Amino acid sequence: MKKYALIFLVIPFLFSCSDSGFNNTNPFVPNYTFAVDLNLNLPEYSNLKFVSNAVYVSGIGARGVIVFNTGSGYNAFDAACPNQAISACSTMTIKGINAICGCDSKEYSLFTGQSDLQYPMKQYRVQVNGTVLRVYN
In this predicted model, what pLDDT tens digit does every residue of 66-82 receive, in sequence order? Predict the structure, then answer.
């Protein structure tokens, strides 16, 4: 009987493991592996020192990456429209605390990546090391 009790005690721990809740799947935005370091002391990234500011970084991900200071940390999203196939108009632009898709003019919050459509913005990981942000997938 003690064996069964031990098994029933251990089984919940095996199923409670997770991948830290990070889901990065979207059928419209392909997965690219990359890592880039952004030095906040450089003029092109210095706006990220202040809350609610965003910076567009081209040349990585599907259509570049938008990095945003939330006040409690940083978010990084792919600049490809998450509900559109990759095309000439699918690069998003920054408008205050939102990103706007060039194809359908839908707005996505840079705090959450959400809009009223099916897929949110494709999010990437951000690691802070002093004044350097590492954005990676």
Answer: 999 999 999 999 999 99
Residues 6+ apart with CB under 8 A from 109: 97, 98, 115
Phi and psi at residue 7, to the nearest 5° = -65, -45
CB neighbours of 86 closer than 8 A, spacing ≥ 6?
28, 29, 30, 62, 63, 80
- Alpha-carbon Rg for the chain, nearest whole angstrom, is 19
Amino acid 88 reads A
Asked whether the predicted pLDDT for residue 136 surpasses 60, the reply is yes
Neighbours of 95 (CB within 10 A): 11
Alpha helices, DSSP H, located in the chain: 2-15
Q: What is d(CA 113, CA 17) in angstroms, rounded to the nearest whole number?
A: 26
SS3 110: coil
Identify whether the C-beta of residue 117 lies closer than 8 Å to the C-beta of residue 104.
no
Average pLDDT of the chain is 88
Q: What is the DSSP letter of 118?
A: S
Residue 64: Cβ within 10 Å count? 16
